[in-house]
Amino acid sequence: MKLQIIICALLINTVYGQCPWWWCEDPGDPPPLGSYGADADQVSASGVSSGGYMAIQMHVAYSASVMGSGVLAGGPYHCAEDTVSKAIGACMNSPEEIIVQDLIDYTDSSASKGDIDATSNFASGKTWLFSGSMDNTVDPGVMVALEDYCKHYMPTWNIATEYGIPAGHAMITEHYGNICAAEKSPYINDCDYPAAYVLMNHIYGGNLRKPSSYGGAMPGDMLAFDQTELEPTFVGSTSLDTVGYIYVPTGCISTPGCKLHIAIHGCLQGRHALDEEYALNTGYNEVGEENDIIIVYPQVTTSLGNANGCWDWWGYTNSNYDLKSGVQMEFMKNIIDRVTS
């Protein structure tokens, strides 16, 4: 899940494993994303690496709609400042070069122009921040910069941090993946630590029921959906894949009012690289089933300037990438609006 920025056209040879039963029969024509009447006041997002950057972008830019975020191995909002050199430098391995006040000034200016929601919404939200002490891809100091950014807006009790787990650059789980310090595909590490539960428990007030076990078949509906009909009109490559995934807990299939969480993969973790592995094995579904939280797994793929299938946190789509008008940001909001309708 390295966050290398490669500005050139590349031919990517993608090797797919066996497709899952729930979309194998017609992978080119999945159904539209359903409407579930989820609670529009209980929407949150989390992600790892580029997905972590996207999660904080969603929380800041759409703070009137997103009430909480979880960020693993990402960094502060607008860290790259639409500049590749800052993305691969300050925002990955040179945190001393991050000027948090500049990011705050940009946030305040964007809010004053209506390009993002009012910062008072973000100030009332909650965030959970994770950096593995063995992360050799994104320096833990970058996450500390995000913590400092959040502290400017939020009361300290709304911010939870975990920097003491000896984890590499990866999504962290209780039960699945590589050894904890690894930094290799699928970039999911078994650290005996249920990150998905811990982050959502913080976001939703500390009273979630903890799953008794992880892994195995789930009783809810695991579905593929058509992402193309949610994609905004855009000139150029969006990097958005054609298919996304959703887990609908048994308590939410026919009953409205469930919470909604957007779980965002990192680089080299999308469907193009892992099929459905991220969606099935990161622990979100178990937490969702136990607590009536719908989990959506949006997907990006490779494109020109985005050889590793990362979410746009440096501007490969355009300079609006982290504003409400950014194409991937609008796509995320369309997901929220659909599931809560």
UniProtKB/TrEMBL annotation:
It comes from the Eukaryota. SUPFAM superfamilies: alpha/beta-Hydrolases. Keywords: Signal. Residues 1-17 form the signal peptide. Gene3D superfamilies: alpha/beta hydrolase. InterPro entries: AB_hydrolase_fold (IPR029058). This is Uncharacterized protein LOC102801039. It comes from Saccoglossus kowalevskii (Acorn worm).
